[in-house]
Write the structure tokens for this entry.
Amino acid sequence: MSAKRVTSQDVATQAGVSRTTVSLVLNDVPGIQISEETRRRVVEVAEELGYVPEASAQALASRRVKIIGLILTRSPHHITSDTFLTQILDGLIEVVHEKGLRLLIDIIKAQHQKEAYLQLVRSKRIDGVILSGPRIDDEALRLLEQEGFPTVIMGHLPGIDGCSVDVDNCAAAQQAVTHLISLGHRRIDCITNADLSYTAAEERLQGYRRALESAGIGYEPDLVRYGDFDPDSGYHQMMDLLEQRPMGKKAFTAAFVASDVVAFGAKAAIRDKGLNVPREIALVGFDDVPISRYTDPPLTTVKLPARELGRVAGDHLVRLIGGEKLHGSRVLLDTQLVIRESCGASIR
């Protein structure tokens, strides 16, 4: 025989309050005047009896499902290749556990964004959403803003005044390329992390251009290629650059690759062409994924606070769901250039 399930009426009877009071306290419904003594008594009795509220009853009482969504606008193939994402998830999941929430992860293709976003919001399956990797053409995100649905952008999207958590991609990329210039490199190619519909890719390319311009080096479109989040794209784009690489003074001597994962593929292409990193081509990445320090040679890169990005985005979404006004707030976290062996010594 199974033990009788403890009900909210059992908690109410022993605590000397109504079932409504038990529901309001245990679901932490905002705006309700209940004394701290009563709250404490209800919580203590619930713990003593081992009462576990039914999820459906909790949702009805609080008008929340206690689930937040993480939307990824990339293909499953790209996501499985992205070790940076796992660090973001680590920070976000920590917040989810602390707040007694659950996390729903949805992968949405760009052409289906509008319908998928609205379906999630209007189905009441989640209380709020974090969007990772916004695209410039993301009309669905503007619809979420219009509906006033709790939303945090992990990144940046011009024209959206909602809450965002990001790094200064442009300044970080500029610092990385400036370091290569300081070592004497004048012809530096660039492979982006993704196509330029992703705002982070466009910002990192902008940082590359600013570094060149600040040093009086002309921007050459022929030295730029566009990655696609994974090592394969880095390999093929670098191979294309190497096959068109002239000899002598016109040859590029360094590469800025705006993603470590893409840079791993680029480095393999350099190796397969019989060239050496950093002796013949210096290499700098972006993200500082954990394996970067263990490659041969260890990769110079821009360290992003991946875990903190997840934590701060989660914290801000919880605050939005709780009714805080964070409209227009943009948090920029610090980055750091981590110099390792892949960029080599000065060639001056």
In short: The two ends are 83 Å apart (CA to CA).
